[in-house]
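Troubleshooting entry. The earlier prediction with DGJ gave an output that would not parse, so I re-checked the input for stray whitespace and re-submitted. Clean input:
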Amino acid sequence: MIEQQGNLFLLSTAHASLLLRADARAPGLLYLGKKLAGGWENASLLAPEYDGSGNEKPCSLFSAWGGTDFREPSLLLRAEDGSASADFSLRSAEIAPRTPLEGLPSSYGEETCLRLTYEEKRLGVLLALEFTAYEDSDAFTSSCSLKNEGKSTVAIERFASLQLEFWGKDYSFTTFDGDWGCERQKHTRPINGGKCENASFTGASSPFRAPFTLLARAGEAVGVNLVYSGNHRTVAESDDMGRTRLITGINPFSFSWKLKGGETFFAPEAVFACGHSEREVGLYMRAFVQEHIIRGVWKKKPRPVLVNNWEGTYFSFTRERILNIAKAAKEAGAELFVLDDGWFGSRDDDTTSLGDWTDHEQKTGGIASLAEEVRSLGLDFGIWMEPEMVSERSELYKAHPEWAMKIPGRDPVRMRHQLVLDLTLPAVQDYLVESVSSVLTLTKAAYLKWDNNRHMTDVFGAAPAGEYYHRYILGLYSVMARLSAAFPDVLFEGCASGGARFDLGILCYMPQIWTSDNTDARERIAIQSGTAACYPQSTMGSHVSASPNHQTGNASALSARFAVAAGGVLGYECDLSALPDEELTAIGDQIAFYKKYREVMQFGAYYPLGDVQGEWAGYCTVSPDKSLAVAVVAVLKKRTGMMNFRASFKGLEEDALYRVSVREGAGTREVGKATGGMLVNGSVRLDGIFEEQDARSANSVFTRMFVFEKM
Ligand code: DGJ
């Protein structure tokens, strides 16, 4: 809801308030925090009105470079004469319909915003800031645009999507960093009177620095994220006047956008939420993603249990081997079979054929009939593609070497023996749409895994250098928008060498993303916890794979691998046809159990449990009415005999009495009764309750799955 009193505006969600004032030179941020009761119009004590003169520097919602504010600016505009100085003044402040962000994905479900428009008279540029409140999920969004109303070109060298400023400089800065196989590891550091940065440079949101960032201090936390898949940057800077500024947006590195007269540039939408703790912010962020980012038929539709052949076969498979895995998958109760890399061109290893999306008939025996045969077993058929890439050993490269991203006269970097296609070119965009469409049509696939296995280097092509990274992402979004509109029933799963492009931009087109190539149960706990800090479990592709694990060599019990993978969208990724009968039966039980509870496991409120750096961690997913919950406790550090082991849960109704059961096969076994209060605030003794009972075995993680049913 948005209310107005003079030049004051109050944006409210169920638990939070954002109070702004349309001041003359920049909007003043008067308050962001716990919901304000009435009387908010008496705000003059929070900050005197600022007219741009004197020493007063209030907390504001943008900062254009060019005055006496020498902190990190949110906006830097360069005129044709080379000068970089802007001086904005208020033109209008209104409650208005939201402006669509041309070419960019954005949140949906709330049509009204507060629009503040400022003008820079010398440059002839209009800056519009739009703020929206999502009442049901306690999140706010901000979108900004710059319109050149003049005749001369203005270069946008920095344009953040959101600036927030707070009084206080004792905040910590939390980011989710990593690499291949260890994405989104949580790191927290004090800002400590200085500056902290979270930025990506790979051309994508990257495995190194996830775009979600948290600012927190005792009893207060604010989280920010971007609806964007390209290079991003979030900076927090505190100063000796006692303020902390937080800026998030497109990374200004190698960015310079020429805005000609009459043109408008839209920055990606930013999302922010505040609460008493990081956990509370996480709950709001996940609800926001579920309700206002994920769209289409899959928004609330139970996600199928899939079996993928990648770790089972890698490139060496035959039609017979694939069908054997699919038969075993059906026997175990899976619903979808996914044929991964290696089915096209002459792809027998990773040195060839990307771009040639035609059947490798020797291996598949005919991809259309293979898909049909999988369907005749009673499974849906899904397929893997890596549409943005080209192998130099391919027909596509022979025909169109100029479509590959490379710098004339320089031998390009070949990561995984492949080059990136220049998606800034409309012809390349069309090629992607045509090739993906023809594979989906030929195979009648119900699912597509969209991979992207390298970072961008040799960034050069048709678009101007300073616009290239962003134009690539706009090209990608245009392709994804066309394909998701043409195939609304297909379940698209994003992937990038594991989880190297896990962000809100991709999630606007693809309801789930492969979280990481690291499927080791112990390591997955930290990867999934870091991912779930902002993204709901229905977005996280999570698979049970072989033991010892192919990435780490660690052994873990099948029960533990399942308990951890069930914290996301469950799949299996191994040669099921080669498993001993008792393991396939156990997998059948796991899948039956998961199907019974998947509604709450995939779409319930998700509460992280324990501490991934500590002795144990896990998760608890709770139905909206709190009558049903499923939880997993995973012990990460073994103690001798695991004596006196205790844990507690979250999200349950404290006054309610619950039947507490543990998973046993496909069903449950009651172990006692307890109130929600005891389970949440108490310390529950779990000795002897773990599935993997032999404390001296090679198992690397001990787990138990619980079901809580309100009595
Ligand atoms: C990287 C993905 O993360 C894997 O799951 C698999 O699809 C391979 N690429 C195939 O090349």
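This one parsed fine. The longest strand covers residues 154-167.
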